[in-house]
Amino acid sequence: MIRRFKGSYLSYVLVFFFFFFCMAAFSSVLSVYLTGIGIGVANMARIVSASGIFALFMIPITGYMSDRTRKPRLIGGIMLICVGIFAMLFSQSRTVALLFILNGLTMSFISAVQPILERLAGASKYRYGILRVWGTIGYAVGAQVAGLIIGTMPSVVLFITILIGGLLCALGFAGAEDPIMDKRKSTEEEPQEKKPAEKIKLSSFLKNPNYLLFLLITVLFWGASGVNMTYVPILLRDLGIETSLIGTVIFLSTLVEIPLILFSNKFMDRFSGKSLIFLACGLTLFEFLVYGLVSVSWVVVTVVILLKAEATTTYVMIVLKIVSNLVAPELRTTGLSLVNTSNSIGGIIMQNIAGMMVESLGLSRFYLVLAGMITLSIILASFLKVKNDLKVFE
């Protein structure tokens, strides 16, 4: 049985389903949970910002250690167990300082493991879409479970569920296999053997202006999109949506991703990274404009369901595509981790100022500010130049 489990599709299902289950269960209703235990909006924003501050250090360290030790599964499994433990401690805390620390540890560990998962999905023997789709299902289930528990049960039940999910994810890591050689480009001849000396240096991509520009675009995109994930539940609640139904809305919005991920092999390798960034940013821009200008609840709910996850999921795949084409395989997890670190930088900036902006401007005008950030991302993306060589999503 152990031999059959090793490298099996089931092991990957456990990894992707329960990783994203834990992510959604902890983060999707975090703002509602914190305000529900008496934390003010400004302090809530500070607590949520801890994830970016902690991740700023945790993500690159984890990525570099994963590449250097060549034991990404062991690192990922241990960190998911820690996520469950941190979540349990979080459930018993009430002071802002302790909630800040424990949220920072929990979410930074989750963020640090995500590049490992993307690396596994992009370079495993199974196609990207049929692995990553289980992450979508896991996130949808996690958001639904979180909404139901917060609305009807003691909140500690949610954090016990996260602990169990972390243990099952670690079990999946134990059965999965380390990434195999990358899928090569089909439009050119097989490359010559690598010259090991230069291509494994960290500076090989840190000096690349296109990689650095992509980091800047990512700071803007995820700064806006990340804070949107925090405030969408509050926006829905302010429009009269019950707490138990907020999880359902997020659940449905996540299910919309499934066709996008399943058929990623049909379009992600075909279009350039720049075109795909325009697509993701365009969808997000429209989304934020609706939140900022429309106050009809059913219209906002419809946009949340149709667009919230579509744009961010597309951008996650864009990251894998662009990094795979800019960074040598030996340091690819590090390259992905540094992009995720730029997510944290955007999160730190936005989460720390979001609370004050919402209190002074209101949610509607705040979303118009986010729309401006996405517009700037689109402008910067027009200068990006990345080849479309590797087939990552086959």
Describe this structure in words.
There is one protein chain. The chain is 79% helix and 0% strand. The protein has helices at 2-5, 9-27, 30-36, 41-69, 72-91, 96-123, 128-152, 156-175, 196-199, 203-206, 209-238, 243-255, 257-262, 264-267, 273-293, 297-326, 332-361, 363-381. Helix 15 (273-293) packs antiparallel against helix 16 (297-326). The protein is globular and about 45 Å long. Residues 184-199 have low confidence and may be disordered.
Considering the chains and any ligands shown, give keywords for the structure.
single chain, 394 residues, mainly alpha, 79% helix, 0% strand, globular
**Which geometry do the CA atoms define?**
globular
Largest sheet: none
The arrangement of helices and strands along the chain is HHHHHHHHHHHHHHHHHH
The radius of gyration computed from the alpha-carbon positions, rounded to a whole number of angstroms, is: 20 Å
Proportion of residues in helical segments: over 70%
How many extended strands?
0
Q: Tally the helices.
A: 18
Mean pLDDT comes to 84
Structural class call reads mainly alpha
